[in-house]
Amino acid sequence: MAEIEIGIGKSGRRAYGFDDIAIVPSRRTRDPEDVDLSWQIDAYEFDLPCLGAAMDGVMSPRTAIELGRSGGLGVLNLEGLWTRYDDPEPLLEEIAALDPAVATARMQEIYKEPVKEDLIGRRVGELKEAGVTTAASLTPQKVERWHKLALDAGLDILFIQGTVVSAEHVSTRSQPLNLKEFIARYDIPVVVGGCASYSTALHLMRTGAAGILVGVGPGNACTSRAVLGIGVPQATAIADAAGARSRHLEETGRYVHVIADGGMRTGGDIAKAVACGADAVMLGSPLARATEAPGRGYHWGMATFHPDLPRGARVQVEASGSLREILLGPAGENDGTLNLFGALRTSMATTGYATLKEFQRAEVMVAPALQTEGKFYQRAQGVGMGRR
Q1: Closest Cα to residue 46, out of 62, 66, 68?
Q2: Is 276 tagged catalytic?
Q3: Which residues have CB under 8 Å from 323's CB, separation 6+?
């Protein structure tokens, strides 16, 4: 791809977000009932390519179980409120009621409470007892310390998550986690991320990860792009990771799943993520809008409460429907934020693709006018696509 000169001493590639592209219909269409949305990672099969983000305003044990029963996979944050407090519900109520001027400082105080090791096993056990596939998240710095507690409680899939996770962390102060050695040690699938480039994705795949999370800073609550100045728009990041997946498959014969993490608000965004190469999507703010969500209409990221350098904001998302309605409808709004996977199914049917793997080969076009062309009245009145 041609580079653009930023100045005499620096050039860069042009990158694209979801609003910059459109999916091109093919020569055929299909009945939506003939479209298969299922996907599989390792031995675990799911009816929906949907993961619930490991954020305290999104996933509690109860909502993770409900998402699992609806066909997706809920990921619980093992360093969040549910492992710091025996009953975090009063604190979740308090966070939802905080004045924006003091929200970050108060959340930093709340999250100073240490993680209780007994709660790690208890929370995983709650998911296991419900009969759903059990997934949970730890940061790279805490994996060695706490992963065994989760595995002993029956964890099925481990997520190792950070703002950016690399296969070659360098430190003069501590012994960094060796991802390749760690993943080889256990017979469970490990998903790692985030990442946002071809080279980082390829190196993470070479560690033996079953899947990688793609997204640095695109989430509604994340401020990493402002605080740190880093990130890649999601359409390009996913396409680059898909390219790394193809190379890794050629080299090893082993398929690694690409999971788009963040930046998706509507069913159309999810469809574009898959068309760019994602096998599944991890959703935060769309699921935080569920009436059952623990955030009570608010959403915040995993770094919002960082004690020294917060990289997130508590944002109000407002409840829009039940978790079931957000995932599978019916939709009472026309802005694409309900029945997300009904929209994905219809998008695939309308463009002629029967499976997610086929849809990854869809033609995509750079389309800056997609959101505005012919939408004067919607934009002027703030309805439909004019709400974006």
Answers
A1: 68
A2: no
A3: 63, 66, 67, 70, 287, 290, 291, 292, 293
Kindly report, residue by residue over 24-70, the tens digit of the pLDDT: 999 999 999 999 999 999 999 999 999 999 999 999 999 999 999 99
**Residue 387: pLDDT over 90:** no
> Residue 7: phi, psi to the nearest 5?
-170, 175
CA pair distance 369, 381, nearest whole angstrom: 19
pLDDT score for 338: 97
Q: How far apart are CA 95 and CA 106, in angstroms?
A: 8
Residues 94-140 pLDDT 10s = 999 999 999 999 999 999 999 999 999 999 999 999 999 999 999 99
Q: What is the C-alpha to C-alpha distance for residues 280 and 222, in angstroms, rounded to an integer?
A: 20
Taking residue 372's Cβ as centre, other Cβ atoms within 10 Å add up to 14
Catalytic residue among 50, 195, 222, 276: 222
Could you tell me where the beta strands, DSSP code E, fall in the chain? 3-7, 10-13, 21-23, 39-41, 44-46, 50-52, 73-77, 135-138, 157-161, 190-195, 211-214, 257-261, 280-283, 298-299, 315-316, 364-366
Q: What's the confidence (pLDDT) of residue 342?
A: 98
Residue type, 204: L
Residue 308, beta-bridge partner list: none
The amino acid present at 270, given as its one-letter code, is I
Q: Which of 84, 123, 311, 314 is catalytic?
A: 314
Is 50 one of the annotated active-site residues of the chain? no
Q: How far apart are CA 136 and CA 150, in angstroms?
A: 8
Contact indicator for 59, 76 with CB cutoff of 8 Å: yes
- Who's near 137: CB < 8 A, 6+ residues apart? 54, 75, 76, 77, 78, 79, 158, 159, 160, 161
Q: Is the peptide bond before 121 cis (omega within 30 degrees of 0)?
A: no
Q: What domains sit in the chain, N to C, each tagged with a CATH number? A: 21-387 (3.20.20.70)
List the one residue out of 39, 54, 42, 51 whose CA is nearest residue 187. 42
Q: In the structure encoding, which two tokens stand for residue 183, read together?
A: 């993943």
What pTM, to 2 d.p., does this model score?
A: 0.96
